[in-house]
């Protein structure tokens, strides 16, 4: 999926939500629009990093944007957790809401995996394959942990800037006392593996596309 495909998948998700709001006059799922916007941030950051990389900007100058990318990255696959809101509601059938939520999750996971693919290719080009592999693994774990902090601790991306001590405390506690936080590790590893699997599928898709491209 290229940027056009992501625009199309996002447009489908927005259209389904608009149809639901128009039919039911309820905005119970309106938060999905904001979550989808946040899912686009890491992809936009990755695209900007690729442009700067191709222009030969020094690695040191790219680091701040890499940090912003990583902070926002969990927002993309986080859309999968919005299935927690799926339940029977008046006005719209359950299957429609399930498809709508799936469309947002599909767009979010795709955006996140594509952004990781872009960033890992930059790291690979500048630091080699082993560093790139470590970068992917760390990014996957950070994404899983970010989803845990967002869904279960109820922190958000902006808290990194507005409440850094709170974020740091909640981040360090599972590391300092892992046996006291089993859910943190289960959620982190589950979503890390899920996201890295999506990243791998994205890589295979790119390889198939490249093999069909005439030389």
What's the gist of this structure?
Helices cover 77% and strands 0% of the residues.
How many domains is the backbone divided into? 1
Q: Mean pLDDT, nearest integer?
A: 92
Give the overall form.
globular
β-strand amount? under 5%
Number of strands: 0
Radius of gyration: 18 Å
N-to-C order of helices and strands: HHHHHHHH
The low-pLDDT segments are 209-215
Distance between the termini: 21 Å
What order do the helices and strands come in, and which of them pair?
Layout: H1 3-24, H2 31-54, H3 59-72, H4 94-127, H5 129-151, H6 159-162, H7 164-176, H8 182-212
Report what the structure shows.
With 215 residues, the protein is an all-alpha fold. The protein has one domain (3-212). 77% of the residues lie in helices and 0% in strands. It is built from eight helices and no strands. Helix 4 packs across helix 8 (182-212). The radius of gyration is 18 Å and the shape is globular. It starts with a helix and ends with a helix. Mean pLDDT is 92; it is low at 209-215.
Can you tag this structure with a few keywords?
disordered C terminus; 77% helix; 8 helices; 215 residues; single chain; mainly alpha
């Amino acid at each position: 999926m290229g940027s056009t495909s992501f625009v199309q998948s996002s447009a489908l998700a927005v259209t389904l939500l608009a149809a639901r709001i128009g039919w039911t006059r309820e905005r119970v799922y309106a938060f999905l629009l904001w979550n989808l916007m946040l899912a686009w941030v890491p992809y936009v950051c990755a695209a900007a990093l690729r442009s700067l990389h191709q222009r030969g900007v020094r690695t040191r100058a790219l680091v701040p944007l890499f940090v912003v990318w990583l902070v926002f990255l969990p927002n993309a696959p986080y859309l999968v957790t919005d299935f927690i809101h799926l339940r029977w509601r008046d006005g719209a059938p359950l299957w429609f809401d399930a498809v709508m939520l799936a469309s947002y999750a599909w767009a979010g996971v795709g955006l996140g995996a594509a952004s990781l693919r872009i960033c890992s290719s930059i790291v690979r080009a500048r630091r080699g394959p082993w560093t790139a592999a470590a970068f992917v693994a760390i990014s996957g774990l950070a994404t899983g942990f970010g989803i845990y902090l967002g869904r279960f601790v109820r922190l958000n991306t902006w808290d990194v800037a507005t409440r850094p001590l709170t974020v740091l405390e909640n981040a360090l506690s599972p590391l300092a006392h892992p046996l006291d936080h089993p859910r943190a590790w289960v959620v982190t590893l589950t979503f890390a593996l899920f996201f890295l699997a999506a990243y791998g599928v994205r890589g295979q898709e790119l390889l198939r596309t490249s093999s069909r491209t005439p030389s």
